[in-house]
Design a protein that fits this description.
CATH topology: Arc Repressor Mutant, subunit A
Number of domains: 1
CATH architecture: Orthogonal Bundle
Helix content: over 70%
Low-confidence stretches: 159-164
Length: 164
């Protein structure tokens, strides 16, 4: 699925960015199929032949994976918060030119309960293999985000994100 226009290129670039951020939340097969189709430019038929399944099975898995990636982004908005490379460069230049400001200190906090909860979510996702309903996952992730906000003292409103 080689991009032939700016919009196709932007779509593939967005999918690759979403995979960088949320790819580990997909099942192993979903992640692999998306990587093969969008990253290595293989057709659904080529992937199906490689895995000895139907083309429709590959299409469905990729479709569900992309739907899940969109739901993750809609809820967490991590891609939206990720600055573009040119924004980073101009921000770095501006920071070098400006006078240094005192940095806000972050207190030492024990994040192991949050890490454990995220690992439990990952095991649950891996166990289910293909996720057709992500409501439970969104709920679990919202709970973890809430814990992080409590530990850091930063709310979703302060970061410009609102939970949906």
């Amino acid at each position: 699925m080689a991009p032939t226009s700016d919009s196709a290129f932007r779509r593939v670039d967005r999918i690759n960015s979403l995979m960088d951020i949320y790819g580990n939340l997909l099942t192993e097969k979903q992640r692999r199929f998306v990587e093969l189709h969008y990253g290595e430019d293989l057709s659904f038929g080529e992937i199906a032949a490689q895995f000895k399944v139907s083309r429709q099975a590959i299409y469905d898995a990729v479709k569900h994976a992309l739907g899940n990636l969109d739901k993750f982004e809609k809820t967490l908005r991590l891609l939206e918060m990720k600055p573009a490379e040119d924004e980073i460069a101009s921000a770095e230049d501006a920071a070098k030119a400006a006078h240094p400001l005192p940095q806000k200190t972050v207190p030492d906090v024990d994040v192991s309960p949050i890490v454990n909860e995220l690992q439990a979510i990952r095991r649950k996702v891996q166990k289910q293999r293909i996720i057709y309903n992500v409501d439970w996952l969104m709920s679990d992730l919202a709970r973890v985000i809430s814990q992080i906000e409590k530990l850091s003292g930063i709310s979703a409103e302060e970061t410009g994100r609102n939970s949906e």
